[in-house]
Predict the structure.
Amino acid sequence: MKKTYLLSLCGLLFLGISCQNEAKNNEAGKTTVQHNVDAQKYRTELAKKKADLNQKLRSADHEKANNLLIEYKKIFDNLLDSLNAAEANTLTNRSLWNDFDNRSDSLQQKIKQYDKFDLYFHPIDSTTLELRFKPSFYYKTFQRKVSSNVRVYLLLQSATQMDDYDQIELTKSLTLLRNDLLKWENFLNDYTESTYYPEAKKHFEQLIKTYWYGTANRPHISFSSKKMTPEFEQEMITLVKQYPNSITAKLSKKYADFFWDINDAYSSEELEKEVKSYNQNQLNKA
């Protein structure tokens, strides 16, 4: 009996030591993220500037709030540039991020830390990330204070996320793109005198080019085969049928007509060049 007890005790001790060793090995396999002193300095400055802004917004009228948006966006952009430079080792080490379940505690802590500042880590490509404000940051901060056209602009900007279009099924993605385009078009029609009209025009052009051509991961047109995807062709038919008087529909119809008219006259490389040049000219005139 005593011998059996001792054997059982040894077995439990061995199991406990094995579990501890496994835990240590797992922790050792996780890369520790160092906390950068410069980054802490910029985070402190960011917190101070956000507090200053909120204090000024309390008594600001529309005009003052509009000016504060311009002023503090420049301040925040500069601080973001400094933070991204300070966090370069973390942002350019994608191996830290690829295994979600094996992210170190120090990295998870860093993610939570920046979340408190309304910042997140945005993937740029397969090797790099960058810190950005959450899409809703400026709208939530300024919505109750700025003039109506600025409020609408900030709302559109926060709701339009280019990365979303690659993440959902193609037909739904095209519908989302169409709806977003029409919202930006309405802004351009309703607020021609807005300070943000040029920026809105840039958003519209970026969106409509994504609508026309797709993305690198999911193109809507193949210039090499000289064909549009069936889903995109159907989407264009829907757009022109449902919104015939919209600029989006008129430009898209011109694009499709031009593409099919010259399809056989050029090589695939020349066709792409001609089509994109024609579309840009039409956008410049719109």
About this structure: Residues 1-32 have pLDDT under 50 and may be disordered. The CA atoms of residues 138 and 154 lie 7 Å apart.
